[in-house]
Amino acid sequence: MRYSGLQVLWQGLTGNKGWTPAWRDPDPKPEYDIIIIGGGGHGLATAYYLAKEHGLTNIAVLEKGYLGGGNVGRNTTIVRANYLLPGNSEFYSHSMKLWEGLEEDLNYNVMHSQRGIINLFHSDGQRDAYARRGNAMANQGDDAVLLDREGVRKHAPFLDFEQTRFPIFGGLYHPRGGTARHDAVAWGFARGADQRGVDLIQNCEVTGIDIENGAVRGVQTTRGAIRAKKVGMVVAGRSSQVAAMAGMRLPIESHVLQAFVTEGLKPTIDNVITYGMGHFYISQSDKGGLVFGGDLDFYSSYAARGNLPMAEHVVEAGMTLMPMIGKAKMLRSWGGIMDMSADGSPILDKTHVDGLYFNGGWCYGGFKAVPASGHCFAHLMATGQPHPAATKHRLDRFNTGRGLLDEEATGSQHNLH
């Protein structure tokens, strides 16, 4: 069914009885050309672009839970292309362009809102660093505006500009950045892949990867063995566990990243705002809730929940930046499992096993990367060659040290990126 305003009007007038399921619920077949392990945003986008761009439709996406129940539904929904280093800069720029045409492409409202992102700075040194980053963004063809204090005040007059310890000097404004509805992104890609013949198989956990003579032959699952010529591992925070089934040890640690949402409020915050002297970022959802997050909990874990000290730290940073937030009631919090790579940048590459591919190490950048991750990984799996926007996201950079993409310049330590 194609969605349109006329369809909404017709269904509304006829009791909404004509809507059909957005995707099928097939049983797994004995064999596919390609299996994608992981039914989150990246896995679904990969399947969608394999079908749309490369005409490959004998594909199954295997998800151990339900579609969109992992990290794609457990984040703060921010979309941006404000990276500094060559490799990340062109990749996230590519993703931004895909975001801008995504709703028309999918015929699905993912509530993409280019409301702008402001990264605040609080010292002369930080201003210089953001000026450099803004120039890198402009060189890539993306948008960046360096705002002084009064420029920031026009966008966000509610901030505490005169705070004693960290007064606000200005901000780097990225107008094309913004937010999107996270679960709608998963649903849109799922619907698009299903319409092109991809089997989306839920409640199907992969328990083993079959390898014969150095080549992948399929997977073992809780719903039986399934043979395949190619297999892609796209499981975010569970990357290390799934890769271990193929005898791989990845340069990845899994950490918890918490996020929070308040009760619904009247429109207050037009942009996404990040605090330069504490790991705190905030936006307002279309339902009115203030959505904000902070830093990792700093210990490895597969628990999709965080601890109290980091929650307190995030709230303290929020109160320092915008004291008015203290009057809002926090409704809930959640944790996403981050697959933190050693240099803070992602990996899209072949593995040492013929026909086995890996997509992971997204750290904080997973949600905003969804369209480009799927687009580039589909290109790699279909052609055997990396997409031009993802040539630097190789796995062997961690063996050789050449081409490391340390965006934060914090060294090779997973929890500092």
Brief rundown of the structure:
The chain is α/β, with parallel strands linked by helices. The protein is built from eleven helices and 18 strands.
Written overview of the protein:
The protein is an alpha/beta fold and 417 residues long. 29% of the residues lie in helices and 27% in strands. The chain is built from 11 helices and 18 strands. It has helices spanning 5-13, 41-54, 88-100, 102-106, 124-140, 149-155, 182-195, 239-244, 308-321, 366-383, 397-400; strands at residues 31-37, 59-62, 78-79, 117-121, 145-148, 170-174, 178-179, 199-201, 206-212, 215-221, 224-233, 252-264, 272-275, 280-284, 289-300, 330-341, 347-350, 356-360. The strands form 3 sheets. Strands 1, 2, 8, 9, 10, 11, 17 and 18 form an 8-stranded mixed beta sheet that branches. It has an 8-stranded mixed beta sheet with strand order 5-6-4-13-14-15-12-16. The chain has a two-stranded antiparallel sheet with strand order 3-7. Strand 9 and strand 10 form a beta hairpin. Helix 2 (41-54) packs parallel to helix 7, helix 2 (41-54) crosses helix 10 (366-383) and helix 3 packs across helix 10. The chain is globular and about 65 Å long. The model has no long low-confidence stretch (mean pLDDT 95).
Key descriptive features of the protein:
417 residues, alpha/beta, 8-stranded mixed sheet, 18 strands
